[in-house]
Amino acid sequence: MICGESPPTYRFDVVYCWAIVRSPLTVFSVADPEEPALVGQSALLPDLFGALAVSGTYAYLAGVWNWGLVVVDVSAPEAPRMAGLLTGAGGVEGIALSGHYNFLATAYGLSIVDVSQPDAPVQVGTLATPDAVHDVALRVALQFSRARRR
Question: N or C: which end of the chain has fewer CB within 10 A?
Answer without folding.
Answer: C
